[in-house]
Design a protein that fits this description.
63% helix
Length: 125
C-alpha cells in the first residue's frame, strides 16, 4: 500500500486497470482502500476516476460500499450522490446480516451528510 501511496498520481493508471477488470471482491476492496489512503495523502485526479468507480455503484458488498462511500465523501463528485442514496435505501430494504468488519450504512450515511452539509454552508458574498 505504501508503495502506491508514495507513487501518487503515477499509480492511478495501474489501480484504474485493476478496478476496471477485476471481479475479485478482496482485490477490489484492497484497491479502493489504497485509493482512499491516496486521497488522504493529497493525490490529485482521483475524482476523475468516477466512471471507473461507478462500476461498483450497484454492489451489495458491504466492504466495497464502505470504501466507495469514503472515496465519494472525499471527492464530492456530484454524480455519486444518487448512487449513495440508492445504496442506503437498498441496504435498508435488504439488510446484510453477515458479520462484517465495516458498517457500510454508517459510511454511506456520512458521505450523504457530507454532500448535504456542503450545500448548506453560508456563502460569503
Amino acid at each position: 500500500m505504501d508503495y502506491f501511496v508514495k507513487q501518487k498520481e503515477n499509480a492511478l493508471p495501474y489501480l484504474s486497470n485493476i478496478l476496471s477488470y477485476s471481479n475479485n471482491e478482496a482485490q477490489i476492496t484492497e484497491t479502493l482502500y489504497i485509493i482512499d489512503r491516496m486521497l488522504d495523502n493529497g493525490t490529485k485526479g482521483i475524482d476523475k476516476m468516477y466512471p471507473i468507480f461507478s462500476r461498483f455503484n450497484n454492489t451489495d458488498s458491504p466492504n466495497i460500499q464502505t470504501f466507495l462511500a469514503g472515496i465519494y465523501r472525499k471527492t464530492q463528485v456530484p454524480d455519486a450522490f444518487g448512487p449513495l442514496v440508492k445504496m442506503l435505501i437498498q441496504n435498508s430494504l435488504k439488510p446484510n446480516n453477515s458479520n462484517q468488519t465495516f458498517d457500510a450504512n454508517e459510511e454511506i450515511g456520512g458521505a450523504i451528510l457530507s454532500y448535504l452539509s456542503d450545500r448548506f454552508k453560508p456563502q460569503n458574498k
